[in-house]
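STRUCTURE:
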């Protein structure tokens, strides 16, 4: 069975909240399942009021968080890393950010 791991990149609606949770999940997956990829839904980038934080800064922060988890995966779990992993991070409100 293939599974995806959802990562909280700032929306705080669910997903892995920290690197300890992420590592624990990867350890379970390594023993029993196959990793299909990571999901870091970033809808908050477009929804957060600009007075609180600019969309560009919010997007960059979400991408930094996402990259940290990708690095943990690649460095600490090289047996789970493969070229067919799916890295999904955008939704329709942020699609254009990902095209740049």
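SEQUENCE:
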């Amino acid at each position: 069975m293939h599974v995806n791991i959802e990562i909280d990149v700032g929306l705080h609606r669910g997903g892995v909240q920290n690197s300890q949770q992420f590592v624990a999940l990867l350890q379970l997956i390594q023993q029993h399942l196959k990793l299909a990829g990571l999901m870091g839904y970033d809808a908050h980038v477009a929804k957060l009021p600009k007075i609180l934080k600019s969309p560009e800064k919010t997007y960059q922060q979400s991408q930094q968080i996402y990259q940290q988890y990708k690095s943990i995966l690649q460095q600490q779990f090289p047996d789970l890393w493969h070229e067919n992993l799916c890295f999904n991070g955008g939704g329709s409100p942020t699609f254009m950010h990902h095209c740049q």
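REMARK: The first strand starts at residue 2 and ends at 6.
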